[in-house]
Amino acid sequence: MILAHGLHGRSDLPVPLWLALYTGAAAVLVSFVVLAFLWTEPRLRGARAGTPLPQLIQRIVNSSITGLLLKVAGMLFLAVFLLTAWAGTDSSATNPASTWFYVWFWLGVVALSLLFGPLYRVANPLRVLARPAAAVLYRPGREKQLEALKFWPAVAALGAFLWLELVYPASDSPRAIAVFITLYIVVMTIAGGYFGPRWFERGDGFEVYFTLIARLSPFGRRDDGQVVIRSPLDGLLAGPSRGLTPVLLLILGSTTFDGVTRVPAWADMTDRLTPLWTGVAGTLGLAATIGVIALMYVGAMWLTRPYLRRPRRDEAPIDLYGSFAHSLIPLALGYTIAHYFSFAVFQGQAGYLLASDPLGRGWDLFGTAGAGIDYTVLSTGLIALVQVGAIIVGHVIAVVSAHDRALQIIRRDYKKTGQYPALALMVGYTVIGIVLVSSV
Amino acid sequence: MSSSTTSTQRRSLRPALLAVPVAFALVLTACGDEPASPGPYGGARDGATAAETAPGGTEVQVYSFVAEDGRRVEGDSRITAELGQTIVLEVTSNTHEELHVHGYDLYADIPEGETAQLEFVADLPGVFEVELHHAHAVLTQLRVGG
Questions:
Q1: CB-based contacts of A179: which residues, under 8 Å, 6+ apart?
Q2: Candidate from A3, A13, A350 with C-beta closest to B125
Q3: How many contacts (CB atoms, under 8 Å) link A and B?
């Protein structure tokens, strides 16, 4: 018999079939419109684009006080969270740490990054902790070794977290979370000390993920250092692409797997399993889902290869597999919103309701003891609209950004044909997303 | 169930012996019912007095389950209800268990070898897990259409 999902006490009803069909049709239509009518020369300028914000705002953003405040906030949150996770009760129904971790941190920082850009990089408390470690462990020149690791350390870190969240049968247990985060801190502090601060851009799964989401923010830093407001399409290109594909396929695949586990057929299949076998089935299911999502990507890139143009003189060979990585960011975000929007709004409330008695001592610090989650703040109609809306908006941004990238790397005489595989891939991902939210 | 009764008689919870037919049980418990025990967030949802058949005579939907050693051996893995419908979960367990309807945050104690009934109005739309707390196992999934 399947174990309780813990935090997921309420989940969404299926998106109505008619709405799902319209959304799917719209996704296909949008893709054709992009192919047929959009610009035919690469137009996006990435980190070179953007309108500078007023000087006053720039000064505030760049001031050391802002940075310090963010770091203090990050350290405070981590300290209170760790204390609560270790010293509070071992039930997510009475200990707010589980909600803080899975909702306020994992989903909340996504929202903040989307709105305000890469704040987490500044607030990341692990960077602060690694500083004294670096005094002992760091030797100059380690950045080269780090470069060679690409983003695989982040893939490992995120993979471990996602396994805990989506597969581990007692994922909501505050103590399980405490153990995970404590280990995470130890590993990140040592690695961050050994490799220097650049480690966090490649090895801290949380920072890597939040920074990727921040590329979709209207705010960012231009390559001349100015803080600018810019189109998310340009923002997507502001940052490395080589080696990022596995990170995004992991995120996309795991969110897809979360959708799969909500489909009745999955519940029927795992219904009679013991906790151990539920974990095994979950691990295999997670790996298989990520595998399918990754194979689709590899297949589409394999079909694109014949249409690639020759590299220009003095130009590095075209990195086909990394080329479309940034286009997966809006898709991954769309999936994430579709799956976790109502969960964040509902379960997120428990984070402050339970904060009144964080350690389970009978306190009532904020007078919220005795209050319950208000499940009436969102109607089911609104939830369904947000779900399909997020998927379709993510699809549009993904397709437009992939179109622009395709124009850069595909032979001029195959401008349209050469885009078919990438477009088909995006449509495929989107259709999977829609099917999953309508068949839960 | 007609709307006249739903607002006041929201939730009730009565361990009762299975032998008693549901309709009869409804009448019996009308005179003395223990309130629903508080939920994890302190019991925001009030325990109610006994429910009764609506004046219009709308049917109360009863779902029966049997659990052995914290696992469901009888009953459906998914149950569905219309929004606003009154439903009764009737659970027999050979071990001492606590029934918990997530979201609604309703609890019922099931003494060893006995049957508990949990009656409430399904007035929150969504998919909710119904759990056997001591075994940490999902008994069934309640789907309330919006």
A1: none
A2: A13
A3: 86
